[in-house]
Structures are given as C-alpha cells and as structure tokens.
Amino acid sequence: MMNNTIPTAQTVVRFSNREQQDFVSALRKRVDNYFKESNKSQNADTRMFVKTAILVSAYILPFVAIVAFAPGFWVMTAMWVIMGFAMAGIGMSVMHDANHGAYLRSQKGNVFIGRILNLLGGSVYNWNLQHNVLHHTYTNVSGKDNDIDNKLVLKFAPHGEVKPVHKHQWYLAFFFYGILTIYWAVAKDHVQYIRYRKEGLNKMSKKESLTFLFKITFLKIVYMLVAVGLPMMAGYTFWQVFTGFLVMHFIAGMVLSVVFQLAHVVESTDFPLPDEKGNMENSWAVHQLHTTADFARHNKFLSWYVGGLNFQVEHHLFPNICHVHYADLAPIVKETAAEFNHPYHEFTSFGEAFKSHIVTLRKFGTPALDDIMG
Predict the structure, then answer these.
(1) What is the pLDDT of residue 4?
(2) Which of 95, 263, 342, 353 could lock 312 by a disulfide, CB 3.0 to 4.6 Å apart?
C-alpha cells in the first residue's frame, strides 16, 4: 500500500518490481526483432535529415531576411512567427533526439547536434538533468519530476495543497505556457544552476561549476545581443524587435508546453508516490505505461512536426531510438502491454487530449470534497 508522502529531492526512489520483468524482456526482444527483420537502424534516416534541414532553415532564414532586407514591421513580425514554430519544432525533433543519443550512432555527433539548444537560448547540461535524469526516470512522481512541480499559480499533480488561485489555472496556464521559453532564455538556467547545486544533481567540481555558470551567462548575453541587437542595427526600434522576439518565444513556449502536457497531465495518466521506504509499486517500464499517454498517432503532419512526441509512450520506453520509428513501434508496444495486462493510454485526436488536459487542470485546482467538508 502506497502512502501519500511526497518524496524530497534527496529521497532515494526505486523501481524494483521484478515480477514485471517478463513484460520488459518480451517488449525489448520484439522491438529488437523489428529492427533486425526490417534491416533498419534505430537512429536517424533520410526522413530525419530532411526534417532537420527544413526546421533549421525555417528558424535561421527568416532571421537573416529580417537583418538583411529590413522588411516592414508586419512582415518582420510574420518572420518571427515562422521562427517561433520552427524553434518549437527544432526543440521537439532535432535537439530532443540528439540529447537522448538517438539522432546518430556517434555520441560526439549527438553532442554536437544537441548543442543547437544554445541557439534557442537554453543550456544542454541543465536540460539533460531536468529532462533525461529527472523527468524520464521519475515520470509524474511529485517531488522528483521537476516538470510537474507547482509553478507559481499552477498545480500539475493531485498531491499537495490546493490554493484558491488554482481554480483559475485551467485558463491561466496557457499564458504561463507561452512565456516558458523566454523565461528559459533569460533566467531558468541560472535558477536551475542554484537548485541542482543545492540538491547535489550538479556533480561538477566547484571550479568546473563556476566555469559552467560563466559559460551559460556568456551564451545568454550573446544570444540576446544577436536576437535583439542585429535587427536593431538593421533599422528597427527596440520595441519593434522586442515585440517580434516575444511573439516568437510565446509561440514556441505554447507549442512546447501543450505538447508535453498532453502526454502526462491528462485524465488517464497516474501520479504514483513511493512507499515509506522509497519503493515504487511498478517496475520502471510499467511505470512509464501508467504515467504517459499517446495522442493523435495517425495524424501524420502532427507526428512529423512534434518529433513523434505524440508517441510519448514509445519515447519513454525507448528514448534512445529516433522518433521517426515510433509509428512502427507503437503497435508492438500496445499489443505487448495488452498481453501482459498493463495499461496503454492513448487519445485518438489532439482535440481529445487537449480537452482532457483542461479537465485535469480543473480537477487538480479543485479541493477534494472531504477537504471542503472539513
């Protein structure tokens, strides 16, 4: 029986259900057989290379056009809009796969491609700690998965105190989703630097850590000087450029946040807690099935754009496999889960998942009846 104690950052949490090992073994064997029989690599192929070229071009070329040709304000704003969607696409498709080691067989190649995050205003090291280490290991575990931590007026898990402002989060959330990447570009990495040093996640020596702090600060200054300074040199006013810059980031933040939330903060997913000894009920792989959902799997354009993150179940089980293969792996995962009586959460459309996310936000923002009755 699980308790309701939220673990701290220092709590050791274990996934140790060995009775579920048969599922893990069967699934890995079937996925390995798929690649062997189809004679495919688990990494990127031509589809991925073409997508990368399209998304990176859609991010860089509009900016070049702004600086080189100085079009009117509304045309410039349209360029920023394109860049916003491209920024989100790069984050979901290119940077994401590379930093999971899934883009290329070469680890050095993955590191090089993953550093494209610097062009988006972020830090690869902090991103890996938050996403690869915490989120992928402790998915939807309050106190361990930073992605579902309470954020200002937002509550993404059923545990903890429900404050009066939370009743409004089902619509307020979307404003905060929009400012995600601008916060990321300006301050998030420094906040995480302090947090991860305090929690012991940042394993660097003091000297290495100070060098890292200098680097992220320097890169952010360069990023802002280029993104805002170069268009101003082309003749735009600060407010014209800053408006476009905010539009770009708001679009990117909205897209990235919504896509992530539809995979984890929806009605069907669980938010389990460990017992008093730090043990989780399920093995790590089965835990992923309980806490993650797919959506709109048959929407080819959406799947292309979001980097297969609508196949989030497959991604969490096989993060080291390039997302271009997820559509082929999904039937294997679904059938194997059913065979071993494990859940497989999915929504048939984006709209269905989006509605479920809003319902979940409203639920988490509403005090339980027994709390209201005292």
Answers:
(1) 54
(2) 263
